[in-house]
Amino acid sequence: MKILGIDPGSALMGYGVIKENTDGSLSEQAHGVLVIKAKTIPDKLNLLAHDLRELLKKHQPDIAGVETLFFSKNKKTAFEVAHARGVILLLLLEHNIPIYEYTPGQIKSAVTGYGNADKEMVAKMVRHLLSVKLKGDDNASDALAVAITTAHHTRLARKSSN
C-alpha cells in the first residue's frame, strides 16, 4: 500500500510518500516540499492544485494522511493554510483517495511516543523508522511523519476489523 502524507501550508507544502511492505515494514518512496511562489491567494491555490495534481499522478497513492489545521496567533496565515487544506482535500477526493486527518499532537505521539515532541525529535524518529536521509526543511519530515501515522492507524484498524 502506498501512503501519501501531507503537511499543508500556504507557501510550502511538505509531502512524503511511503510504502507499507507485505512484511509490515515501511519504506520511503519520495519526500520533499512544494514551493508555492505566488502573491495572491487565488494564484497560490491554483499553483498548489497544479503541483499536487502532478504529485498524485506521479506517485498514485492508495491513501493519504493530512495534518489538521494548527491554529496560530497569526490569523492571516491560519486562513491561508485553511484555504490550502481545502484544495488538498478536494483534490484527494477527486482522485478517490481515502483521507485520514491527524492533529500535530497525534502525529508526534504516533511517531515519537510523546505528543509534545519538538520538530527535531520527530525528524530523528522519521529518519530512524524509514532509514532515510532527509532533504529539505522540516515540512518534508513532518509529512513523512503524517504518512507513518496513517500507516500505523490503518494497520490497527485492519487488525481490529479481523
Automatic annotation (TrEMBL):
EC number: 3.1.21.10
BP GO terms, sorted: DNA recombination; DNA repair
Binding of Mg(2+) 2, residues: 67
Binding site for Mg(2+) 1: 7
Catalytic activity: Endonucleolytic cleavage at a junction such as a reciprocal single-stranded crossover between two homologous DNA duplexes (Holliday junction)
Cofactor binding: number and manner: Binds 2 Mg(2+) ion per subunit.
InterPro entries found in the cross-reference section: RNaseH-like_sf, RNaseH_sf, X-over_junc_endoDNase_RuvC
Record-level Gene Ontology MF annotations: crossover junction DNA endonuclease activity; DNA binding; magnesium ion binding
Cellular component terms (Gene Ontology): cytoplasm; Holliday junction resolvase complex
HAMAP family the record matches: RuvC
Protein family: Belongs to the RuvC family.
Annotated PANTHER family: CROSSOVER JUNCTION ENDODEOXYRIBONUCLEASE RUVC
Protein name listed in UniProt: Crossover junction endodeoxyribonuclease RuvC
Organism: Candidatus Harrisonbacteria bacterium CG10_big_fil_rev_8_21_14_0_10_49_15
